[in-house]
Amino acid sequence: xxxxxxxxxxxxxxxxxxxxxxxxxxxxxxxxxxxxxxxxxxxxxxxxxxxxxxxxxxxxxxxxxxxxxxxxxxxxxxxxxxxxxxxxxxxxxxxxxxxxxxxxxxxxxxxxxxxxxxxxxxxxxxxxxxxxxxxxxxxxxxxxxxxxxxxxxxxxxxxxxxxxxxxxxxxxxxxxxxxxxxxxxxxxxxxxxxxxxxx
Length: 199
What we know:
single chain, alpha/beta, six-stranded mixed sheet, 6 helices
C-alpha cells in the first residue's frame, strides 16, 4: 500500500474516519473544522460539547486527538486533532504536528479502522508553512504504514493544487513514487470524484 494523495472535499469521503483539524474547544471553527461540522450536522457539535474538559475551555490539548461519531457525513468516525499554531518553529510545533498524525493513527488502529483521511493540519489560519507541514505529514504516515497493518488506507487530502503538489513532493523525497492522478484513488475507494475536486 502507498500513502494516497487526493485533492477535494474531505467531507465527501466514505472512509472509516476523517480527521478534523480542530481547535482546543472542539466547538467548531473556520476552514475544514467548520466544513466538517456543517456537513455532519448539529449532533456532532452536541457530542463534542459533551466531551470532558481537561482544563477550562479545552477538550483536546494541542497534539492530541478525540473520537466522535460522524452523523450526516459518509465517514463512520471523526477524529478531532488540534494542530499547533505556527510561531517561529522553535516552540515544539514540529513535534506537536507529528503527534497529531501519529496519535490519530494510533486511535484509528485501536478502533479497528481500515481507512483514514487527513486534511492539511495547521495549514489554514494556524499558519504552518505548507511544505514543512507536508513533510511532517508524509514522514509520519509513511513511518506508520511501514510498521503497522492498520489503517491500511491512509489518504492525505489537499484542499487546493498547491497542497496537492506539496504532498506529492514530500512523498517523492521519502522514496514513494508519485501517483499520476487523484481520480484513480477515488475509483479504488469505490467513490465517485466530486466535480469540485477535479485537478
